[in-house]
């Protein structure tokens, strides 16, 4: 019984989540995804690559040499994760500032022969906040019963909701500042333009009057 | 010790069985004149929902198209800002959905989509249970479902707020740009008016002196 349990344990912990959605990426192409998240939120990304095999005319797992370069930028354009992973990888990061984080992927292939005419198929899955939690691990580490694990899941969900609400307040303030700035600008520039118009009018009349007086036409 | 081990086993088994039945939610940038396609292998009979919204860019619209494994178009809409489409998979195979910004010449768009395939994996394999859920457990399940819809509404609100904020920031820059532009045009036009007028009278002056003498 025990070895069976252990193998199951190993299998499940190693397999993690199998990314289902996929898209195609060219050789020098960089694909970026945006995640707008509150602070102290964990993001786990899983990806798996496949390369088109001409002889067998199907997509097969890419060779270990072909990896993906993952770069994560925080809302202030500062790079918080910049690493190269193999053909199958998992990247994790926790946000420290709320805002739009950019996750960019591109292949590290420099050998043109691997990619000839084809595209790389990338399976990707990004889990944010509460979805990133591995409940099996938590149950094992804290030795929780079924009911306790359910309640723990609810607590994590409510935590995420609370963080999102705080972030919403911060964003609404930014929105209000932008609207007030627009309001100020419209007001100020209307006044300035009216003043310019009046000043230009006065200048025009005075200049032309002195001009015509000089010409002895008036 | 065995109790928690049993729990662990059940959770692991659930993950193995249903670990791949998950929703994908992504926000990506779609450059002008570009098309981005996503694919997913779906089993027949699974209820799926595709929801998308344009967050920033231009007129906040995009073309969307969903095809089944045989290439039949299940859903096609042009220049839509937001939509939600539910369908049940009639065939096994790879379903494809594409977002196109080919009608736009110079605006990049940011598109959010949420593709839900099947139901979320349960925390435990409830179908294997001999006894029904206790009251506490069923209360937990209903709270979990309610919280999931709260998070869903929060996401929708966040996207609408991002869209509104993007429009407000666009408006702000446009107001500044056009105000400065108009002030400059005003100055240039009035000065050139005076210069032009002066040039008319400068010619007449020479003819007048010739007539006088």
CATH architecture of the largest domain in chain A: Sandwich
Q: β content of chain B, as a range?
A: 25-35%
The total strand number of chain A stands at 9
Mean pLDDT of chain A: 83
Distance from N terminus to C terminus of chain A (CA atoms, Å) equals: 115 Å
Enter the CATH topology name of the largest domain in chain A.
Jelly Rolls
InterPro entries (chain A): Emp24-like, GOLD_dom
Protein name (chain A): Transmembrane emp24 domain-containing protein 9
Family (chain A): Belongs to the EMP24/GP25L family.
Signal peptide (chain A): 1-20
Could you walk me through the main structural features you see in this protein, from its secondary elements to its overall organization?
The complex is a heterodimer of chains A (218) and B (213). In chain A, 42% of the residues lie in helices and 30% in strands. With 218 residues, chain A is an alpha+beta fold. Chain A folds into 2 domains: 20-132, Jelly Rolls (Sandwich), CATH 2.60.120; 134-217. In chain A, the strands form 2 sheets. In chain A, strands 1, 3, 4, 7 and 9 form a 5-stranded antiparallel β-sheet that branches. In chain A, strands 2-8-5-6 form a 4-stranded antiparallel β-sheet, with no helix packed on it. Chain B has a 4-stranded antiparallel β-sheet with strand order 1-8-3-6. Chain B has a 4-stranded antiparallel β-sheet with strand order 2-7-4-5, with no helix packed on it. Chain B folds into 2 domains: 23-119, GOLD domain (Jelly Rolls, Sandwich), CATH 2.60.120; 138-195. Chain B contains 2 helices and 8 strands. Chain B is α+β, with helices and mostly antiparallel strands and 213 residues long. The chains are: A alpha+beta (218), B alpha+beta (213). At the A-B interface, helix 1, strand 1, strand 2, strand 9 and helix 2 of A face helix 1, strand 1, strand 2, strand 8 and helix 2 of B. Chain B: One of its GO terms (biological process) is protein transport. Chain B: Residues 35-117 form the GOLD domain. Chain B: This is Transmembrane emp24 domain-containing protein 7. Chain B: Belongs to the EMP24/GP25L family.
């Amino acid at each position: 019984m025990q070895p069976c349990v252990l193998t199951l344990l190993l299998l499940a912990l190693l397999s993690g989540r199998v990314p289902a959605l996929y898209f195609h990426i060219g050789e020098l192409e960089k694909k970026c995804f945006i995640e707008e998240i509150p602070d102290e939120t964990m993001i786990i990304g899983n990806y798996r690559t496949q390369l088109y095999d001409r002889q067998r005319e199907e997509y097969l797992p890419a060779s270990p040499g072909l990896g993906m370069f993952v770069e994560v930028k925080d809302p202030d354009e500062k790079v918080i994760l910049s690493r190269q992973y193999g053909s199958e990888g998992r990247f994790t990061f926790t946000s420290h500032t709320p805002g739009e984080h950019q996750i960019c992927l591109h292949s590290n292939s420099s050998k043109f022969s691997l990619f000839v005419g084809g595209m790389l198929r990338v399976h990707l899955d990004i889990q944010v906040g509460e979805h990133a939690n591995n409940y099996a691990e938590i149950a094992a580490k804290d030795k929780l019963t079924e009911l306790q694990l359910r309640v723990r899941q609810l607590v994590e969900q409510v935590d995420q909701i609370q963080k999102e609400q705080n972030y919403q307040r911060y964003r609404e303030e930014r929105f209000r500042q932008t609207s007030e700035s627009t309001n100020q600008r419209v007001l100020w520039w209307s006044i300035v333009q009216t003043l310019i118009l009046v000043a230009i009018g006065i200048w025009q009349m005075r200049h032309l009057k002195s001009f015509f007086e000089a010409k002895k036409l008036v | 010790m065995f109790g928690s081990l049993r729990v662990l086993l059940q959770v692991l088994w659930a993950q193995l069985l249903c670990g791949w039945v998950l929703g994908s939610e992504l926000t990506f940038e779609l450059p002008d004149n570009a098309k981005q396609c996503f694919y997913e292998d779906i089993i027949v009979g699974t209820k799926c929902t595709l929801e998308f919204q344009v967050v920033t860019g231009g007129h906040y619209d995009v073309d969307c198209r969903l095809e089944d494994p045989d290439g039949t178009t299940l859903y096609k809409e042009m220049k839509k800002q937001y939509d939600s489409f539910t369908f049940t998979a009639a065939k096994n195979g790879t379903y494809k959905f594409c977002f196109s910004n080919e009608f736009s010449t110079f605006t990049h768009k940011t598109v959010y989509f949420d593709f839900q395939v099947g139901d979320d994996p349960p925390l435990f394999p409830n179908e294997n249970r001999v006894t029904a859920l206790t009251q506490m457990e069923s209360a937990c399940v209903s709270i979990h479902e309610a919280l999931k819809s709260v998070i869903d509404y929060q996401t929708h609100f966040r996207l609408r707020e991002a869209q509104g904020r993007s429009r407000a920031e666009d408006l702000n820059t446009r107001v500044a740009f056009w105000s400065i532009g108009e002030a400059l045009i005003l100055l240039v036009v009035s000065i050139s008016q005076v210069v032009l007028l002066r040039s008319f009278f400068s010619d007449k002056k020479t003819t007048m002196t010739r007539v006088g003498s």
